Amino acid sequence: MPPTPHPLATLSQILHNPSCSDGLPKEIESDLRTAACMLIQEAGIMLDLPQSTIATAQVLLHRFYYVSSMLSFGITDISITSLYLSSKLCETPIRLRDLINAYMFLLARIKHLSGGVSGKGKEKENMKIWEGFSFEPPGFHDEVFWDWKDIIVSSEMQILKRLGFNMQVDLPYSHVINYCRILDLVFEKDVAQSCWSILNDALLTPLYVYHPPHILACASILLTTRLLRIPLPDNWWVLFDANHEDIWQCCGTIANLWREWGMEPHTGLIHGERRDRRKVEDKWRRTWVLLESKKAVRRWVEENDQKA
Amino acid sequence: MDLAAIENQRRADRWDKGIKIGEGTFANVYKGTEKATGRKVAIKKIKVGEMKDGLDMTALREVKFLQELRHPNIIALLDVFSVKQNINLVLEFLDTDLEAVIRDKALIFQNADIKSWMAMSLRGLEYIHRNGVLHRDLKPNNLLIASNGELKIADFGLAREFGDAGSRMTCQVITRWYRPPELLFGARYYSAAVDIWSIGTIFVELILRVPFLAGDTDIDQLKKTFHAMGTPTEQDWPGHTKLPDYHETPQHPKNPWWNMISSIGKEGQDLARELLRFDPLQRLSAVTALHHEYFTAFPRPTPPIKLPKPLAELRPRALAPDETQGKPILSGTENGVVKRKAESPSTLGLDGKRIARRLFA
User: Where does the pLDDT of residue A127 fall: very low under 50, low under 70, confident under 90, or very high at 90 and above?
Assistant: First the structure.
């Protein structure tokens, strides 16, 4: 058992993604990763967990779905369990009950939103979206807690088992601060914040299991300085053992994420076709349906096969 | 069967599980062998049925840190695998622990032996600290002894990273007798110096053959510490009166306590004093301790293989109250009785279970 400080997915794991081998299209697979990580992020913020705990959970989830299929393990189950496991690993313990409540709130909200929203005009829409939404946490002794607890306990074991008990996660946040210092960027307005946010966004993609942390740190600096139009010396990334191809590819993945989900920063620098609102909405809706359980994913794959 | 399951099965097949040699609150320990080589191992099976909220933190910490830490003076985690819903840790099999050695009145320690044990402990600890980890439960029965005499630090159930200086940590760690005064005063921000204090008390215990500061309660622990070493002044330990649980203690005069360990020699006395400074900032670090002249002065440390070892079979003993849970009990819940061992060699039968049980409880 050699020491594995920060395991990355192997090329064959990336090429033969278990969910895709089970018939899930690549695009949907990555949408579901994103949605599952969004759940972790939101629940983590609600529970006041530090970003390192949230990030660890998201990385564990990405790793998990390179050794397991979304048709065998429900995405919401793994998402809630990763967060629980990482809260233990990062010594930021949370109460299981609080975690379950947070997830039930998020799931109730998804249910409400996927019920369909109609409306015209931005302001009207904003008012209407939440109309009729309410969430009542279940009673203290409600069965639902026990059901969730069983799911979490058994999924936890699955995650540990399937990751071979390798739980070390090395995050790029501290690298970014050091690199910014070396590049004399710490006093540039918004740079550190933007790098930080980009690294957070990158967690919604599988980048953290493709590249070691120093590459991700460089990518966040590259993208930030491009967006803010800050010049840097040529080939600065050589200083940090990064190569242009890797970091540029990371930037592309992140820009793509923004475009696809309609969340690009308002810098006007990311060009490309004006996103089709309808398309984005459909994407959200489809993802929400599949997020629910492995059964939903299986059903979708079956229907998709029949169509084809 | 998919890849992950095959891999797990492959791991499980490497080991033969033998008889049960110990039983703890959250784990059972079995003797085992590696099929290919016949090497003896200890297999620690973590009970899942008993787990309240998923896998216990102590088990998680143990796996997490032992996977990363590899050093001749640290117990080796050879493998981890699962069978059904159980987690199995495969660990090096070690014969005995330092506590059993200290308690065995038939053994006589030379100063060179003590130096050898200290050097091995500090080497292991230096490696742990260098890698940004605090052990937080050093005591003689977590220092295991292999059949070739090598000392290995075990039990990482309370360990944690301390990379982030600003992170608040619990002060309810380290078995009381080895707990430094800053933790007894409730410090929430502390450093590697807590482990150094433990090593210091172990050093004195090796010389005296009885626990140096054996308090009955947390308050009593402070009292005993100050009684033995004198109550610290603001000058000895700047800022200690500002610690969260600081309370006035009876004033004890400065006491040349190192005179009671004069048998270890001048350098040894000096090392003990440097390890047991009240002010955590003034305590030696593991690496500076290793460079202390004690280790270069005469006599040279005994080679591990020649160190004294208990001849008799290991004797069973009851678990200490703060060991039964796998973590120390909180100060509010204890009743002031410390019963670390309740053995009497003649009444209890022989078995090798005791160490393993203790170790892995």
Answer: low
Residue percentage of chain A with pLDDT more than 70: 89
Q: Do B67 and A89 touch (CB under 8 A)?
A: no
Instruction: Determine contact: A92 vs chain B, CB below 8 A.
Output: no
Is there a contact between B64 and A152 if contact means CB atoms under 8 Å apart?
A: no
Select the residue from B53, B136, B169, B173 to test the A interface by mutation, using most A Cβ atoms within 10 A. Answer: B53
Domain boundaries A173-261, corresponding CATH code: 1.10.472.10
Determine whether the annotation assigns residue B26 to a binding site: yes
- What are the sequence ranges of the domains in chain A? 20-168+278-307, 173-261
Give the per-residue pLDDT at B345. 36
Long-range contacts of A88-95 (CB under 8 A, 24+ apart): A88/B54, A88/B55, A88/B57, A88/B60, A89/A56, A89/A167, A89/A169, A89/B60, A89/B64, A90/A50, A90/A52, A90/A53, A90/A56, A91/B160, A91/B161, A91/B167, A91/B169, A92/A49, A92/A50, A92/A53, A93/B57, A94/A47, A94/A49
Express each pLDDT in B157-213 by its tens digit. 899 888 776 778 888 889 999 999 999 999 999 999 999 999 999 999 999 999 999
Structure tokens at B268: 């040894």
The radius of gyration computed from the CA coordinates of chain B, to the nearest angstrom, equals 21
User: Measured between alpha carbons, how far is B60 from A87 in angstroms, rounded to an integer?
Assistant: 11
Q: Do A88 and B57 touch (CB under 8 A)?
A: yes
User: Which element (helix H / strand E) includes B92?
Assistant: strand B86-92
Residue whose tokens read 């029949």: A306
Q: Give CA–CA dist A272/B249, Å, rounded.
A: 72
Residues with Cβ within 8 Å of residue B215, at least 6 apart in sequence: B176, B177, B221, B222, B223, B224, B225, B338
Nearest to B98 by CA among B69, B76, B118: B118
Would you say the ipTM is above 0.85? no
What residues does B197 pair with on adjacent strands? none
pLDDT at A303: 86
User: What CATH superfamily is the domain A20-168+278-307?
Assistant: Cyclin-like (1.10.472.10)
Among all residues of chain A, which has the CA nearest to that of B71? A3
Q: Domain B96-306 in CATH: superfamily? A: Transferase(Phosphotransferase) domain 1 (1.10.510.10)
**Which residues in chain A are closer than 8 Å to B67, comparing Cβ atoms?**
1, 3-4, 165-166, 168
| Amino acid symbol at B339 | K
State yes or no: B44 annotated in a binding site.
yes
Instruction: Answer whether B67 sits within 8 Å of A166, measured CB to CB.
Output: yes
| Active-site residue, B137 included | yes
